[in-house]
């Protein structure tokens, strides 16, 4: 093929691939629904050669399995890297085995990320993306695609539809459990020096509770919306005090404030209001805000998996809350305009950073 024609075919393929990318999401969701990774992992622990299609069909939670469709679906999942495939020694049947990727979608595996990925694959989370255009409408500045679809803001939807809220807060809890040991490492000196901390928008309290467990001299509290606090009190974090309130109105006094995944939910104007409330309540000289957020790369030019995830997360903030992910430069500008001095940005795991800042006099 001529070079120009080959270039055109590649470009055409790229556009079709974008148009059909949702198929990957739906196949991943199906793999989770059927517990395919759990079945294949459990089987191959006893039978290292793998599981045949017939054996797999028998293990599915279905009375009757359409074996031809199962074969096609498994072929797609192999292409996606979720499983690997070979054939039996007699070459009669396909054999499926786990991959590195399938370890992440085990129900009880140590590496399982199911609580993190299940909410984003639900119908209620996917449907607002159909209204991405409303985010462009300058006349409807505060209307998010989520609100257009569901008729209320994300936080209200979680209190009205507890199943949605439960899934979301489970995801936040899983993410916090993964990140908080790194946050503690980075902020150890700060935690040793302070007497009190409020986890602003701290949800079920797992972050504050982990800090309280390692630094018992720090009085740890969680400030969140009244409906979240009502639920969080039953989440089993006894070493934490829960405070129902509104971070835009006032934040009780503490030596340090933790804002994990809070500011990315909001546009710059709202962030400035939250940071002003933080500044008002922190001790002058010595108070600290600890921000835990993704820090975006300046250029969004990568085509690797993580670049695409970062891009989707940033667009997700636009869809769900009207917020945004920020670059290091944007964090610096935002904090400076709220009267904070950035002390340090420390990258931790999977694109996240800990940003420590002090109020300027
Ligand atoms: C993305 S979640 C982050 C939860 C937690 N910090 C974490 O990282 O796991 C945002 C949190 O902000 C809370 N929130 C939203 N609006 C709030 C407000 N006006 N005052 C206090 N908390 C609020 C939500 O209820 C939610 O728990």
Automatic annotation (TrEMBL):
Listed InterPro entries: COMT-like (IPR016461), COMT_C (IPR001077), COMT_dimerisation (IPR012967), SAM-dependent_MTases_sf (IPR029063), WH-like_DNA-bd_sf (IPR036388), WH_DNA-bd_sf (IPR036390)
O-methyltransferase C-terminal domain location: 134-340
Domain of life: Eukaryota
Any one Gene Ontology molecular-function term assigned to this protein's record: protein dimerization activity
Keywords noted in UniProt: Methyltransferase, S-adenosyl-L-methionine, Transferase
List of catalytic residues: 264 (proton acceptor)
Residue ranges of domain O-methyltransferase dimerisation in the record: 18-107
PROSITE patterns attached to this UniProt entry: SAM_OMT_II (PS51683)
Any one of the GO BP annotations: methylation
Protein name, as recorded: RS-norcoclaurine 6-O-methyltransferase-like protein
Species for this entry: Cinnamomum micranthum f. kanehirae
